[in-house]
Design brief:
Layout lengths: L31 H14 L7 E7 L5 E7 L2 E3 L2 E7 L3 H8 L2 E8 L4 E11 L2 H8 L4 H9 L9 H14 L12 E15 L7 E7 L7 E5 L3
Antiparallel strand pairs: 1-2, 1-5, 3-4, 4-7, 5-6, 6-7, 7-8, 8-9
Helix pairs in contact: 4-5
Length: 223
């Protein structure tokens, strides 16, 4: 029987008209965190899968960029929080170069948010407070993985997990690994993008102003 070859779609021919919303200066708040909170709530209410998923971009001291998807675990007027293994490549990059960028790709809402700023390590107390909220299996998983290190196969990881689960069975406490913790990305700029028809998208950028007042400059960018 002859097999039918599936031809790939032509990316150049994939188009959609963005008509789900608008973003105007007249209704946008004067600082970015209130608008982010509204948009994040919209993403949650819309039932988007993993609405807290964000693409984290880092760069090494040599300027080699890397990106990956991580999960937002908190935000507020001080910045955006995520947690990871400090042996990972992202942590190595941030140790050499603290500048980072976050991208929230809320495609079904035809929106995206881009955050740029410096990443700071959270305190051990903040790390422990969040670690205690994680499911028991996730706590064990943090111990089992030396993130980004080479292993000979999945079996090694599963055996390590099983041994640690025997060491710290439920419902007992699992200690916080000393090689695991959180970061706070303190933004100096936050850009909100709302898709519009004919590629005339709305883009509002908030840039932190210098000085003791610590206000924000809001500007419209050309799409």
């Amino acid at each position: 029987m002859d097999t039918v070859q599936r031809l790939p779609a032509d990316p150049a021919g994939l188009r959609i008209s963005y008509e789900r919303g608008a973003l105007a200066e007249e209704t946008a708040p004067l600082e970015p965190f209130a608008l982010f909170a509204d948009w994040f709530a919209d993403a949650v209410d819309a039932g988007l899968p993993d609405p807290n998923a964000m693409v984290l971009a880092t760069a090494s001291a040599q300027g080699r960029p890397r990106n990956r998807t991580v999960l937002l675990k908190g935000f507020g007027g001080d910045g955006f929080r995520f947690f990871t293994n400090h042996t990972s490549r992202k942590a190595a990059d941030l140790a050499e170069n603290p500048w980072a960028s976050l991208l929230f790709p809320w495609h079904p809402l035809q929106r995206q948010v881009i955050v740029t700023g410096r990443a700071e390590r959270l305190s051990p107390e903040e790390d422990a407070a969040y670690f205690r909220t994680r499911p028991h299996g996730s706590q064990i998983g943090a111990w089992a993985s030396r993130q980004s290190s080479v292993i000979p196969g999945r079996r090694v990881l599963e055996e390590r997990f099983a041994a640690l689960a025997d060491r710290w069975p439920e419902p007992g406490d699992v200690p916080v690994p000393d090689f695991w913790g959180g970061y706070l990305v303190v933004p100096d700029a936050v850009e909100f993008w709302q898709g519009r028809p004919d590629r005339l998208h709305d883009r509002l950028r908030y840039t932190r102003e210098e000085g003791p007042a610590g206000g924000w400059l809001r500007e419209r960018l050309s799409p």
